[in-house]
Amino acid sequence: MSLYAIGDLHLSFQVPDKKMDTFGRVWVDHEKKVKKNCEKLIRENDTLVLAGDHSWGRKLPECEEDLKFIEDLPGRKVLVRGNHDMFWDAKKTAKLNEMYQSRLIFLQGNYVPYKDYALVGTKGYTFEGPFYLDRRGRIRGWDEKEAEHAEKLVEREYERLVTSFEAAKADGYTKYIMFLHYPPTNILQKESCFTKIAEKYGVEHVIYAHCHGEERFHDSIRGEFHGIQYHLVSGDFLKWNPERIL
């Protein structure tokens, strides 16, 4: 019963004008690579968490083939909401879980049992600019209005994460693995409310995606930080091989 994670599949079976091939060779036929690697690594009693940006479809009918692709991958599939997952309104998580019962699990404001752990998660958020640079490319300032707006979104996502933790805690869980789509910190931060809540609840692993493209792979924490292991699982970073977390 291993736990795997990968993110940013950006599937587009019903939205062909959103093919990702233009973003580099790693994206060519990436769906086939995902399928092949998952079938090689993952067994039916394993759990695979997909850390957001599943589909380019804006409404659920435009995502059905993408979600079917995920459903047909081996193992139990748990989905975290990404910034491009327009089909998934946060208020409709329960409805999605009802629709896809026994096929897919949608993680947002709830938790998913895994052995004696609770898998908790939310989309998350972090300020990504605009940043103002000097001639040497060093950050000298940023759009303060956008940063203020970002703080409101961070606070909203933080509260959703608290709901996830507290639901698991109320059911007796004391061991947690935390999932986000956005990274837990941006390029200006050493820590954030997301790293602090992970420390508060004694999380063992924090898994996130969103940072894809080689220039983004170092935007946030990777490896051990304050006793917690942080994992970037964007698909192109992993070369489409899901990472085994436990």
Q: Summed up, what is this model?
A:
The protein is of the alpha/beta class and about 250 residues long. The chain is built from five helices and 13 strands.
Structure, explained:
The structure is a single chain. The longest helix has 27 residues, at 144-170. The chain has helices spanning 30-41, 64-71, 93-99, 144-170, 193-200; strands spanning 3-6, 47-50, 76-80, 105-107, 111-114, 117-121, 131-133, 139-142, 176-179, 205-208, 223-225, 228-232, 243-244. 25% of the residues lie in helices and 20% in strands. It has 246 residues and is of the alpha/beta class. The chain has 5 helices and 13 strands. The strands form 3 sheets. The chain has a 6-stranded mixed sheet, covered by helices on one side. The protein is globular. β11 and β12 form a beta hairpin.
Order of helices and strands: EHEHEHEEEEEHEHEEEE
Strand order of the largest sheet: 5-6-9-10-12-11
Distance between the termini: 9 Å
Give me the count of strands: 13
Low-confidence segments, given as residue ranges, are none
What global shape is seen?
globular
Please give the share of residues in helix.
Answer: 25-40%
User: For the CA atoms, what is the radius of gyration?
Assistant: 17 Å
Sheet-strand content, in percent, reads 15-25%
Summarize model confidence as the mean pLDDT.
93
| Main pleated-sheet profile | 6 strands, mixed
What quaternary form is this? single chain
Class by alpha and beta content: alpha/beta
Please report the number of helical segments: 5
